[in-house]
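Notes for week 9. Today we move from apo structures to complexes. The key idea is that a small molecule is not decoration. When we ask for a structure prediction with 5,10-Methenyltetrahydrofolate present, the ligand SMILES becomes part of the input, just like the chain. The input block below holds both the sequence and the ligand string. Read it once before you look at the output, and try to guess where the molecule might sit.
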Amino acid sequence: MSATVLSGKELAAAVRADVAERTARLVAEGRPPRLVVVTATDDDASAWYVRSIVRASANVGLVGDVVDLGADAAPEAISARLAELGADPGVHAIMLQTPLPGSTALEEMASSIPFEKDVDGANPLSLGRLASGLPAFAPATAEAVVALLDHHRVGLEGAEVAVVGRSNVVGKPLAHLLLDRNATVTVCHSRSKDLASVTARADVVVAAVGRAGLITTEHVRPGAIVIDVGTNPTADGGLVGDVDASVAARARAVTPVPGGVGPVTTALLLRHAIEAAEHS
Ligand SMILES: Nc1nc(=O)c2c([nH]1)NC[C@@H]1CN(c3ccc(C(=O)N[C@@H](CCC(=O)O)C(=O)O)cc3)C=[N+]21
C-alpha cells in the first residue's frame, strides 16, 4: 500500500484567496500593504524564492518590493537598510533572505527588523516571544508544517512528534508551535544518538535538515505521518526533499516535494504581510 499524498496546493490557494480579499480592503481604504524582501546573495534557491514571493504578491494585489544589496554587502549596510525600512510607515512587512554574505548571522541582522514587521520571524525577539506565548510571527516554513497538518486533519493533541533539524527558521520555532498544540515534541539533529530509534516511535515525523534521502523506511513507524520540509536541488534541475521515496510504502501519509510545504510557506508569508499591514 502506498501513502496518501498530503498536497499543500489547495491550502496555499485558500490562504492566497483570503489574503487577496483582505488586501483589496486595505487598498480601498488607501492603505496599500507593502512587503519588502531584502536579499544579499546570488544563491539560486533564494533567487527562486524571491521571484516566487514577488509573483505571488502581485497575484494577491500586495506590493512586493525587492531590495538587492548584492552578495558582497557589509553587515552594517544590511542592518542599516533593515532599520530604515523598519522606520518607514509605508513598509508593513520585511523579510531578509538567507544565505547572507560570509559569516553574517541572520539573527544578528534581523534584530534590526521591528518585530511587528518581522513576517518571517527572523528577529530573535520574535522567536523569544513565540516561545513565551506572546504575539509574534513564526517563520513561515515552521507555521506551514502545522497548517498543513491541520488542513489534512492530522490530530496533534497528545501526539508524539519527532522534528529532525534544529534550525532557528524551522526546527526550534516548530517545536514551540507543536508544544502550543499539546504535542509531545522531540527535536533531533545531526548529533542525535540513534536517530531512527527516536523517529520510529513518532506518530508524526518532520524532516527539516536539507539533506536528500536522509529519512528512510527504518526511520518511520508503519502508519506514521511524514512531513518533508527539505528542498534539495538535484543535478537535473529538479527538487527533492529529505525523505526517501521508499518511505511512501510504509507511512500512512507523506507530503510531496515539490507541492507540499513549499507553496504553503509562500502563502503564509503573504498572510503575515497582510496581518502586519492590518495592525499598522
Ligand atoms: N529567511 C529565509 N526564509 C526562508 O524561508 C527561505 C530563505 N530565507 N531563503 C531561501 C529558502 C528557500 N525557500 C523556499 C520556499 C518555498 C519553496 C517552494 O515553494 N518550492 C516549490 C517548488 C519549487 C520548484 O519547483 O523549483 C514547491 O515546493 O512546490 C522553495 C524554497 C525558503 N527559504
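The chain has two domains: 30-114, 140-262.
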